[in-house]
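Backbone description:
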Amino acid sequence: MGRLRAVSVAGCALLAMGILGAVPAGAANVLNVPGTYPTIQAAIDVSTNGDTVMVAPGTYFENIDFKGKLITVQSAQGPSATTIDGGNLAPVVNFSTAETTAAVLQGFTLQHGNATGAFAYEGAGVHISGASPTVAGNNIVANTSCANGVGISVAFASPVIRDNAIDGNTKQPGCSGQNGGGIYVRGASSAQIIHNSIFNNTTDYGGGISLFAAGTPTLLNNTISGNGAEYAGGGIYAVNQSDANIIQNLITGNRSPVSGAGLYISPPSGTRGALLVSNTIAGNFGGDSGVFLGGFDAQVQLFNNIVAAATSPQPAVLCDTTYSSTPPVFDHNDLFNSAGPATQGSCSVVVGTSGNISADPKFASTGDCHLQSSSPAVDAGNSGAPSLPSTDLDGKPRISGVAVDQGAYEFQQPLVVMMSSVSGAVEGAGFSAVVAHLSGGAGPYTATIAWGDGQTSPGSISIPNANSVSGSHAYSEEGAYTLAVTVTDSTSATASGSTSTSAADAALTVTAASISAVEGAGVSGTVASFTDADPTAAVSDYGANINWGDQTSSAGTVTANGSGGFVVSGSHVYAEEGTYTVTVTVTDAGGASASGTSSASVADAAIALTGAPRFNEHHKTNFTATVATLTDTDPGGVTTDYTGQIAWGDGTASACPSSSCTITVRPSGGFTVIGSHNYQVPIPMAKAMYGGSRTVVRYAKFMP
């Protein structure tokens, strides 16, 4: 920046304004003044299109003319160090030979100019006629003349006038009927007047800017303050066909003792009229109104403006009915007068319609037209207004809240992060969730999510879909986590929030295996298999319990099966044959558990009979003898477990147990079958047969 200039005037204070420094030269040649050429004009005269005339610091008493050259004339160190003094002889700078925007004047203080008859009495500081140059980053000050456009005049031209300070330019005493103390635009054109500071200029009509049949000029992001007009339009005067786009300007502290202290707009019939969007027009004083809308003003449109009257009974807006009783278009404006009427004339009833309000805009302080957070103008504008800029007068983003603010400044809502309830996470499985919402700040935004497990990832921000922050993640272990979100806006402001969340234990799936066993004999092997949705699970995470279905249970052994799952093994001895329901329960380190059931089929243990040695008995003699020995592989067998019979070989049999047959325990193991019988006839080769219920048959020979 060449320099910063702060301005304080009645109404709202102006922010410091940056005056552009040198533009990088892409010129074919650089002509140095006074190093190579003694004067600026001498360098211009020998330059060719594309050249740069570079002027060293100093004061140069000249009146320069670009002579149609498409060159850049700029100071080396900005307007605070480099001055061109016109000596009150003629305009300080003249563009009147069809120059285009490629002809650039930048970085000078231009002072003591005068507009003479040779220049149609227009433009004491800068005279532009039939040309469209770029005038940027200059201080245009202390010029005087009986001319229109004491600071800058524009006739039938479309120049770019940006980032200039146009200060203290006044008409000469004794002159009357002049227009445009700061800037005068006449003739069909499309002048662009952007981001200038226009203050303390005086004339008869349009102390700051006068637009006279000016075509379609654009007035954007200018500060127009402290200017005076003897008759009308202290800040801006626009008459005849001047279909101006007056967008986001700060117009404060201007004065006119007759009409339109801030603005005077009077379009002719059949024209579009001015479009005013997002201007702050406050503290302008004198005359009949802050803003005067006359002529055929039904075509004029006002969106999202703040118009605050300086004093009562002066209305904020007066809509004259001399030529039209139809009011202009008012949409979402704040039209305020603290003690008198907000509006008069044809627009007297617009408050309360189409979003128009009349309330104290609650500026930040006396002399500062930024809005307080409690201002009724915050979020009160029409976000769909035509030509709405994407940034405010400070260059900060619109829209900061739920809707655009009224006036030139957008209240910058503080950046706030509001956490959402986050659920649904399961260890080892990816999940996505909206983790937070944001408000305020200035987009675009970036977000970082710290998931609480040492991992972070960028958040995805959806604007304006609830201004949500979402992300995706996979927790490797179940448990509770603190999730934090940090959002950064385009101004590097940050806001954070945190919330608690948890990852559930991954689900287990257990499949029990069928078991075959024999009573009394041990069974050992796989009783179940299972899988875990957690892909990071390890064998050490699990415990297993086997309920064998016979009122006993034991711990199972867990091993990996080599294909991503696990098996449970166990050993058991069933005391009795039968069918049992086996339940295998697996529990992991996170407390999750699952069970599976199957059947265990337990067979009866095998038995064996051994016939007693042959024995002799006498005819008809009762006898008692051991007829067999019994063994059972079931070590738990007892005498009451067995039944059978003895077939004595003579056509008779004895049930066992009975009075004729008993089973006793053998000291050496197994059992003894003892029978009692009385043979009725001799049997040369009798056979005693013991048959048990398990169809085991053994024979013993009986000898007579």
In short: The domain at 416-504 is CATH 2.60.40.10 (Immunoglobulin-like). The chain is about 0% helix and 45% strand. Residues 1-10, 13-27, 683-704 have pLDDT under 50 and may be disordered. The longest strand covers residues 494-504.
